[in-house]
């Protein structure tokens, strides 16, 4: 009897062991190695030397582009995650309704998410070209414009385009996370709300949002991580030009590590980004859990 109890006690951990080993090898060890490198001297060839204290972090913070890049990263994450969550929720509500061709519409929505980010960014980069971009061609042919417009006159506009592309490719992920939550809601809740005289907005506020909140929490936390670490869109469209004005933290540390050969500072930047992500995701999770408890 004792043998059976012991076996049942340890059996779940045995099933989890392969996953824990994989996470340790491919997640925990690399994180520990990066932390160690951030406090070590690193040669231009990437060879790790002795203990350097906080020198790499001081070099990273004193980088002339660091302040601008941190502001860009904040704007990038907040705008892409915020607006993609809003639009994704609206699209999910539409796709959850019963209409003819719903399956086709869902298939179309998933295309931007299923396509490589490099391809997506390259296509949009081509669309907004001044000389031969499709956007100018379409507007000229429709008679909306008389002359071609340079859609990239300033770095602020270019960065806005990058954020727009980020929102466009992120909407499908949010849509299907929210859609999964919407489809799990029992229709009886809406029937009871209708009997009580609730309209669309009251149903949305008191039924839909509380019940879909777990799905929104998952999509938002994952989105914060994915968007913060997103590299292809910014690098493909502008490569951070001009003078790192459109860089985010991820593209800047890439440039410092592989172009400028400042691997110590780049490693410190990666650790700074990791800490910021942990704090942001943790705070959002705590706030969401408190909101659920209040409900």
Supply the CATH superfamily name.
MetI-like
* Biggest sheet layout: 2 strands, antiparallel
Widest β-sheet, arrangement of strands: 1-2
For the record, the CATH class is Mainly Alpha
Parts with pLDDT < 50 across at least 5 consecutive residues: none
Dominant shape: flat
CA radius of gyration: 24 Å
Q: Care to count the β-strands?
A: 2
Distance between the termini: 44 Å
Question: What is the helix content?
Answer: over 70%
* Average pLDDT over all residues: 89
CATH 2nd-level architecture: Orthogonal Bundle
Tell me the number of helical segments per DSSP (H or I, 4 or more residues long).
Answer: 12
Number of domains: 1
CATH third-level topology: MetI-like fold
Strand content: under 5%
- Structural class estimated from helices and strands: mainly alpha
Order of SSEs: HEEHHHHHHHHHHH
Overview of the structural elements:
By secondary structure, this protein is mostly helical. It has a single domain, classed as MetI-like fold (Orthogonal Bundle). It contains 12 helices and 2 strands; from the N terminus they run αββααααααααααα. The protein has a two-stranded antiparallel ribbon with strand order 1-2. β1 and β2 (about 50) form a beta hairpin. α2 crosses α12 (about 265-295). The chain is flat.
């Amino acid at each position: 009897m004792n043998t059976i109890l012991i076996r049942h006690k340890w059996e779940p951990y045995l099933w989890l062991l392969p996953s824990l080993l994989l996470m340790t090898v491919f997640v925990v060890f690399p994180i520990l190695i990066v932390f160690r490198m951030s406090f070590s001297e690193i040669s231009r060839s990437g060879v790790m030397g002795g203990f350097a204290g906080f020198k790499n972090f001081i070099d990273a913070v004193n980088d002339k582009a660091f302040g601008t890049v941190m502001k860009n990263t904040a704007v990038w994450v907040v705008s892409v995650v915020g607006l993609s969550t809003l639009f994704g929720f609206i699209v999910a509500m539409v796709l959850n309704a019963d209409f003819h061709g719903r399956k086709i519409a869902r298939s179309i929505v998933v295309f931007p998410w299923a396509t490589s980010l490099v391809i997506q960014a390259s296509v949009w980069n081509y669309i907004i070209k001044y000389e031969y971009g499709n956007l100018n061609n379409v507007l000229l042919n429709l008679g909306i414009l008389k002359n071609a417009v340079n859609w990239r006159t300033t770095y602020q506009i270019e960065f806005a385009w990058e954020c727009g592309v980020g929102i466009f490719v992120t909407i499908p992920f949010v849509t299907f996370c929210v859609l999964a939550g919407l489809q799990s809601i029992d229709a009886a809740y809406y029937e009871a709300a209708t009997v009580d005289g609730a309209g669309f907005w009251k149903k949305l506020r008191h039924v839909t949002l509380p019940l879909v909140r777990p799905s929104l929490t998952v999509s938002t936390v994952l989105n914060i991580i994915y968007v913060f670490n997103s590299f292809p869109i910014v690098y493909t469209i502008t490569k951070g030009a001009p003078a790192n004005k459109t860089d985010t933290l991820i593209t800047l540390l890439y440039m410092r590590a592989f172009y400028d050969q400042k691997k110590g500072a780049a490693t410190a930047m990666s650790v700074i980004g990791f800490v910021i992500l942990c704090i942001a995701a943790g705070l959002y999770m705590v706030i969401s859990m408190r909101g659920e408890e209040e409900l």
